[in-house]
Amino acid sequence: DADVTQTPRNRITKTGKRIMLECSQTKGHDRMYWYRQDPGLGLRLIYYSFDVKDINKGEISDGYSVSRQAQAKFSLSLESAIPNQTALYFCATSGGGGQETQYFGPGTRLLVL
Amino acid sequence: SQQGEEDPQALSIQEGENATMNCSYKTSINNLQWYRQNSGRGLVHLILIRSNEREKHSGRLRVTLDTSKKSSSLLITASRAADTASYFCATGNSGGSNYKLTFGKGTLLTVNP
């Protein structure tokens, strides 16, 4: 089984709708991250969390919110989706404490019409 | 904003040839990592080099780091068609507990059989 899972894998939604992307991990890591990837732009950090009580904004947090429900779960919400939020979204985890390698989920492809 | 910038943006070679990708960054770092992404999939960690290291090897991969020039290179020797993917460098910021990675835009490597 995959260490980092994301649901859904694909999602089509309409402008103005609220949607949630979910991430679960079985690696026992404290640190979790949400990125978005747009063609030619690489990965940009949306939010990150270093433990259940810690939430931090990343580079492009406007229009997004997150919830860290447990060590293993980190959800990303788009409060009112807009077309320029169409992108590939990745969740990642890392162990912290000198373990800087990040482990990525398979991604969620989101299309906002 | 992106910290690392990969060069070239795209590289096409024949199977068996070596592939070299470069990464430049702007601010001081704790470490630099290289990741690989097969089309539309999650990123996979390849190798990490710390700021006090100059060269590191892992199988057919060789990474160098020149902190004076703020640059790194990834060499893939004896390339295979299966190496076709996008390759990203990611820099880890220096110091503190607020550690996170900043990714470049990637190099698309095509290995022709």
Report a brief summary of the structure.
Chain A has 113 residues and is an all-beta fold.
Q: How would you state the average pLDDT of chain A, rounded?
A: 94
Count of DSSP E strands of chain B? 11
What's the average pLDDT of chain B? 91
Low-confidence stretches of chain B: none
Keywords:
heterodimer, A: 113 residues, mainly beta, 7-stranded mixed β-sheet, 4-stranded antiparallel β-sheet, globular, B: 113 residues, 6-stranded mixed β-sheet, 5-stranded antiparallel β-sheet, 0% helix
Structure description:
The complex is a heterodimer of chains A (113) and B (113). By secondary structure, chain A is mainly β. Chain A has strands at residues 4-7, 10-13, 19-25, 31-38, 42-51, 54-57, 64-70, 73-78, 87-94, 103-104, 108-112. In chain A, strands 2, 4, 5, 6, 9, 10 and 11 form a 7-stranded mixed beta sheet that branches. In chain A, strands 1-3-8-7 form a 4-stranded antiparallel beta sheet, with no helix packed on it. Chain A is globular, with a radius of gyration of 13 Å. The N and C termini of chain A lie far apart (33 Å). With 113 residues, chain B is mostly beta strands. Chain B has strands spanning 5-7, 10-14, 19-24, 29-37, 44-50, 55-58, 61-66, 71-76, 85-93, 101-103, 107-112. In chain B, the strands form 2 sheets. In chain B, strands 2, 4, 5, 9, 10 and 11 form a 6-stranded mixed beta sheet that branches. Chain B has a 5-stranded antiparallel beta sheet with strand order 1-3-8-7-6, with no helix packed on it. The N and C termini of chain B lie far apart (36 Å). The model of chain B has no long low-confidence stretch (mean pLDDT 91). Chain A binds chain B through residues 4, 33, 35, 40-45, 48, 50, 56, 58-59, 88, 90, 92, 96, 100-107, 109, and chain B through 1-2, 30-31, 33, 40-45, 48, 88, 90, 92, 97-106.
